[in-house]
Amino acid sequence: MNNSKLKVVKNVFLGKYFGKKTPLCIDFRITTKCNNKCEYCNVPEKTSDELNTEQIFSMLDEAKRLGCIYFDISGGEPLLRKDIGQIIDYAKNLGLIVGMVTNGKLVHEKIKEIKNLDTLAISLDGSKEVHDKLRGEGSYSSAVNAIKIAKGNNLKVMLFTVLSANNIDQIDSLIDFAEKEKVFLHVNKLFKHNSYTTNVNFLVPNKKEFKIAINKLIKSSSSCIIDSKEYLRYLLGDLGLPKCYAGKLFCRIDPNGDMYPCQDMLGRIKGINVNEYGFKEAFKMLKSSKCSICNCALYIEFNNIFAKFPFNLKKEIKRVRRLKS
User: Fold this and answer.
1) What's the CATH class of domain 3-324?
2) Does 255 sit behind a cis peptide bond, omega within 30 degrees of 0 on the bond before it?
3) Residue from 60, 185, 65, 39 nearest 122 by CA
4) Which residues of the chain carry a pLDDT beneath 50?
5) C-alpha 308: how far from its chain's center?
6) 3-state class (DSSP) for residue 27
7) Do 126 and 213 meet the contact criterion of CB atoms below 8 Å apart?
8) Coil, helix or strand for 192?
């Protein structure tokens, strides 16, 4: 094990057993601007100031010094940022693992700028009819085209699927699509959040249909499914919430630089601005979140990994290597 891996193991150990705060993972919503109008999302309606390029570089410098290893970029639509390529390259040059979520519409224009990403997650909710109904006419063609272009440029691609009443019957076809295209599949549960969702009650699948869909993923032998069994069982309610490390080992940052323990804290607490306080001080000031339920796949997976550390270390390293190989 090289020095960088030993440092990560050390930081996780100190964080779990001694309460040392280390921002191993940053979830950065880089913009609220979007060129889609998804049926359940109101993020584009929320105008926000955005950190400029140099401010983001400074934030990444501090985060890296504090032990950050993973930088995840979301939106809005991240590819609407003119400096997105510079930001990706800067993070990669610092030695960070960098992932991004996109609707795919601008991948053909920005492919040279995003070629250094470790993973590219492209939103795909099912068939053309289903996907276009949820995300807008022409969205399916854009997503499929983006997948082909990204693969053609040797990017590791993941399908990002939000499960709703409109696509809960699409699991089999999504697995087939992922296997055919040789990409990974990740699912997330549609949930109501006052900060960035519209009234989604009519889109929430009934419990029976949801259980059938998730059990298909759990029982599937497909190697394209990247979600852990623990995460999927949590979605079913079979597992209790693991100990939460939000604000201790990972954090969420909004476009204007407001830092939160996680996205579920938006609208519940006041964010601490990294531009005002600096990343180090902002992270130090974060308080752990107290939730009865977790609604974000990224955080659930992080918490499962940290909760079982070090016993699942080899298993998780193997899973990450599948994404990078």
Assistant:
1) alpha beta
2) no
3) 185
4) 1
5) 21
6) strand
7) no
8) coil
Which alpha helices (DSSP H) does 196-325 contain, by range?
207-219, 229-236, 274-277, 279-285, 297-308, 313-324
pLDDT in tens, 218-264: 999 999 999 988 889 888 888 777 778 888 888 999 999 999 998 88
Give the pair of three-digit tokens for residue 302. Answer: 């992080």
Enumerate the domain spans of the chain: 3-324
CA distance 63 to 69: 9
**Segment 151-190, tens digit of pLDDT:** 999 999 999 999 999 999 999 999 999 999 999 999 988 7
Q: List alpha helices for 127-205, DSSP H.
A: 128-135, 139-152, 171-181
Q: Which of 147, 144, 93 is nearest to 120 (CA)?
A: 147
Would you state the structure tokens that stand for residue 288, as one six-digit string? 């752990």
CA 64 to chain centre: 19
Q: What is the pTM of this model?
A: 0.89
